[in-house]
Design brief:
The protein has 174 residues and is mostly beta strands. 5% of the residues lie in helices and 35% in strands.
Length: 174
């Protein structure tokens, strides 16, 4: 049984069923597909430039990426609770946002993010796998800094970001 605030991991191949204008924080789930080639992940423009200018430094890849809560060889069905998630701050001041990493396997990553009113996730980023957002609270304004295209994603709406698309989310609430 899965309770409120729990997530569930189903490994690949296993059959199964089953910018914000508000004054409230935005709360959304995030799932990113396939971290298999994690050495080629470009997380931000800064990482991309650093990889070009200082290749000996490489990219900053977290040690848990692609192997939490299990390594690829040890994956099994599992209930994942908030208290077991990796808690971290993403971004830079003043736009730091809280996130919880529930799952980061070689196939998918699932995270829970909160963007406070007036904040954004910064810097813009890009992924080598498709990314999925589901807004649980508030309204997220998502923009592509390369094209200027902007999307408004409201509570209980989902949004797909195909791989290799730059994006940045905003909460315009106060």
């Amino acid at each position: 049984m899965i309770y409120e605030d729990e997530k569930f991991l189903i490994p690949r191949g296993l059959k199964h069923r089953y910018f914000n204008f508000d004054d409230e924080p935005i709360e959304f789930l995030l799932a990113v597909a396939s971290w298999k080639n994690s050495n080629s992940i470009i997380q931000s423009r800064e990482d991309e430039n650093r990889a070009k200018d200082e290749p000996e430094l490489g990219l900053s890849i977290p040690s848990w990426q692609g192997k939490y809560p299990f390594s690829p060889e040890e994956k099994k069905p599992a209930v994942l609770r908030k208290q077991d998630a990796i808690s971290m701050i993403y971004g830079r001041e003043p736009d730091e946002i809280r996130c919880y990493i529930y799952i980061s396997t070689d196939e998918i990553t699932l995270s829970d993010y909160w963007i406070c009113p007036g904040a954004k996730f910064s810097p813009p980023d890009i992924h080598t796998g498709d990314e999925f957002y589901y807004v649980r609270k508030g309204t997220l304004i998502l923009t592509n800094p390369d094209t200027g295209r902007t999307y408004e994603i409201k509570k209980d709406e989902a949004f797909l970001i195909p791989k290799n698309i730059w994006h940045q989310g905003f909460n315009f609430g106060n």
